[in-house]
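Thread: quick sanity check before group meeting

JM: Hey all, I'm pulling together slides for Thursday and realized we never actually wrote out the predicted structure for the chain we discussed last week. Dropping the sequence here so it's in one place. If anyone has concerns about the input, flag it before I start.
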Amino acid sequence: MTTERVVASVRGRTIGGCIRRADGHPVPDAVLTLIDSRGHQVSRATGDGGGTYLLESPAPGSYVLIVAANGHQPAAVNVTAVADGALHVDVTLPGSGELSGVVRTAAHEPVAGATVTVTDLRGEVVGAAVTAADGAYACPGVPAGTYTFVAVAARMRPTATTLTVPDSGRLRFDVELAPMAVLSGTVRADGQAVCDARVTVLDWSGATVGTARTDEDGRYTVADLPEGEYTVVARGYPLVTGQVTITGSEVAHDVRLGFGADEHAELL
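JM (edit): ok, ran it. Output follows.
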């Protein structure tokens, strides 16, 4: 429970203001209770759908305003009522819920070190976490609402989805990430490394998904390839193609250039 002290004075005999979340959005239907120094209730009200509330002003003196709302941590605010004065008191309620879950691969292996980010409908980040060794993450204080959930990890295909945190403020959301592979190898001709050969990777539809040129040692690398079947095309001498099936995080595929027939290789 948080405590603040607010003193304000304008003409009138009321206590009013707005109840908001930490991100500035109003908290609807908050319950407000005003107690005196002995803990006795002296006034009570319920906020409207826009977070606005209005309490009848008590006699001059010191009071505590207690604010509670579903899915939020309660707050207590010290207020001082003055004669013929109205208090304007805005209160911020932090979320009491928690968005949590596990990031894993399709093989149900935990993904450690993955970054989880939660943004609201305006694109502002309201929660972030890094998964532990068991793939678990937790974003505390995410209030009820609709969000975009993004999970990113090295050598994994990023994923984004829309999720809704219920009024309770608690939601468990597990996510699977598809691995991304690195395809690498050497291009040679007549036993010698071929420098600056162009290597192109095509998917099942013939669309180009990656290109690379060999270095001085004839090495090439094409990163961020999801699992699937691909055609590797090397140009330098007459065109050479090879078929590659990627099912792991690292796949090696060497290419031999020459004037013979196309080569065919399937790697698991």
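AS: nice. The longest strand covers residues 180-189. The chain has three domains: 2-93, 98-177, 180-257.
JM: adding both to the slides.
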